[in-house]
Amino acid sequence: MKLTYYGHSCFKIETLQGKKIIIDPWLSHPKAPSKIDEGPYDFILITHAHGDHLGDVLKLARSSATEVIAIHEIQQFIIKKGVPKATGMNIGGTYRVAGLSFIMVPALHSSSLPDGSYGGEPCGFVVVLENGFTIYHAGDTGLFGDMSLIGELYSPQIALIPIGDHYVMGPREAAKACQLLKAPKVIPMHYGTFPILTGTVEEFLRELEKYSFKPEIIPLAPGESLEL
Ligand code: NI
Ligand code: MN
Which CATH number characterizes residue 212's domain? Predict the structure, then answer.
């Protein structure tokens, strides 16, 4: 499978069977790469309704070949905006489709729609590919103890976790999150997009020095890919 980072919290996953998934498709941020695959995608996952995560979903989800997966309130909102195919779910559930599993897991954050109304609860996603390869995208979140349940129950091989601080975990919290998740590989996200997101990879690595469990940290520049 191939994972491409588009900066901020946006990742593209290309599966072995050729399915294309994009998570939190904000493609117009200050650090966005010049070359971006605008689809069509098979699946678009949205972790919460903030603009930097809802992103360009309305532009990317123009045909029923693309299925958006999000919490109920976001699904209702984007259907009203004309998205032809959107599946709503809620925290704790698994949606099985096309040989893939999308598990909606908790995130500790807030979520409001562009009009200011309630966007449902924020979430993270565990994505299980056709061959069982498991990826955890934490969404926007603070540290919470139940990350250990996500680690225990789904054993993600790779975790995508925020380190930028201010709105999400900073390096100190992210290092602790690694101890709870026990994923062998970690890609830091949601940092460096704006000056207020001050967390850095260097600080994250320093914080990990406190612990005996040290996952492989794989920082990706926007536009960079990883094949696993
Ligand atoms: Ni947010
Ligand atoms: Mn955010």
Answer: 3.60.15.10
Cα angle at 101 between 99 and 105, to 5 degrees? 175
142 Cα: distance to centroid of ligand 1 (angstroms): 11
Would the pTM count as exceeding 0.90?
Answer: yes
What separation in Å is there between the alpha carbon of 207 and the centre of ligand 2? 22
Range(s) of the domain holding residue 88: 2-227
pLDDT one-digit tens code per residue, 94-140: 999 999 999 999 999 999 999 999 999 999 999 999 999 999 999 99
Q: Distance, CA 131 to ligand 1 centroid (Å)?
A: 31
Ligand at shortest distance from the CA of 8: 2
Tally of domains within the chain = 1
